[in-house]
Amino acid sequence: MTSGWDAMARWRDRRMGANGDLWHRSLIDPAVRRVVGPVRGLRVVDVACGNGYLARRMARAGAATVVGFDRSAPNVRIARGHERNDPTGARFEVADAARLPLPTGTTDLVVANMALMDIADARGAIREAARVLGPNGRFVFSIAHPCFDLDDRSLWSVERGFGTDGIYRATVWRKVRGYRVEGRSRIPWEVSAGRIVWTESFHRTLSTYSGYLRAARLVVTRLEEPWPLPEIVAKSPQGTFLTEIPLHLVVEAVPRAAPTRGSRTRQRSRAGASRRSGSGARTPGTGSRGRGSTTVS
Ligand SMILES: C[S@@+](CC[C@H](N)C(=O)[O-])C[C@H]1O[C@@H](n2cnc3c(N)ncnc32)[C@H](O)[C@@H]1O
Fold first, then answer.
1. How far, in Å, is the centroid of ligand 1 from the Cα of 48?
2. What gap in Å lies between CA 186 and CA 170, rounded to an integer?
């Protein structure tokens, strides 16, 4: 079945080019690149790679191998076309993020840039990222910020007026509704005058993403809320708002170390010690906004 991503692959490629569109270039990618760090010598997978610009960039930066996967065949054709015209060594394949055609434990870095919120089975995609990572691997992903960018359920509100200090100013609010209501929404993209292509997006709460990572035995080691660079502040009407409220998250997660025999014994003896001393016990009715639930002191 043709998806919206298929239908607008060419249009999106023109926007993204080799360095990303304005939003990637001057807001999302600087944080992604910082969190990814040096890739020289790494075996890298770019999940939901779009036109492949980031995969190709990582190949150029000296990654040992780079494979970009996307479910959209037109995107993969476009990425391969760029590779033919200007080879970097990156490879591109059609694949679903929740079923990567890769052996277990063979990757050092999995990147999913602005993709998990567009993937119906994000739990499966995260599980697959974890499966293909080696024990020292890292999973880096960026997503629309689940708290502030809920598609048509979030918007900017700008109020202008005099403050109590007598100064006339604009106050920027980000209005959000239905944060706890997870589900699918349709995103319109105006690819030419009057022609709208729709894609699907899936809002999930932070707790849901955290649960998916936990189920995949991944632990979060870094989290950034990208700051806008001057370019987007100057060029986008939302630029200055982004200096107050972030619309994206960049996350690094790594495989949780399997407990060794020794560490299990150590954990057990620590638990025994805290039971004996009374520390670590659950204390009813404290620390949780008076809802009577329990907390660990
Ligand atoms: C917003 S685009 C991001 C593309 C690219 N990472 C970038 O930053 O330009 C989302 C991408 O997810 C891909 N996608 C959606 N569902 C997918 C799935 N289940 N498996 C693999 N790719 C998927 C789409 O084809 C699209 O290329």
1. 4
2. 31
- The rounded radius of gyration (Å) of the Cα atoms in the chain is 22
Q: Are strands 91-94 and 65-70 parallel, antiparallel or unpaired?
A: parallel
Pocket test for ligand 1, best of 71, 94, 113, 197 (most atoms within 8 A of CB): 71
Q: Which domain holds residue 285?
A: 261-296
**Tens of pLDDT, residue by residue, the chain (297 residues):** 679 999 999 999 999 999 999 999 999 999 999 999 999 999 999 999 999 999 999 999 999 999 999 999 999 999 999 999 999 999 999 999 999 999 999 999 999 999 999 999 999 999 999 999 999 999 999 999 999 999 889 999 999 999 889 999 999 999 999 999 999 999 999 999 999 999 999 999 999 999 999 999 999 999 999 999 999 999 999 999 999 999 999 999 999 987 777 655 555 555 444 444 433 333 233 222 222 222 222
Residues with CB under 6 A from ligand 1: 5, 16, 24, 48-50, 70-72, 75, 96-97, 113-115, 118-119
What is the domain count for the chain? 2
Q: Which atom of ligand 1 is nearest to the CA of 3?
A: 25
Tell me the CA–centroid distance for residue 6 and ligand 1, in Å: 10
55's enclosing H/E stretch is helix 53-60
Identify residue 98 by its one-letter amino acid code: A
Same domain as 98, residue 11: yes
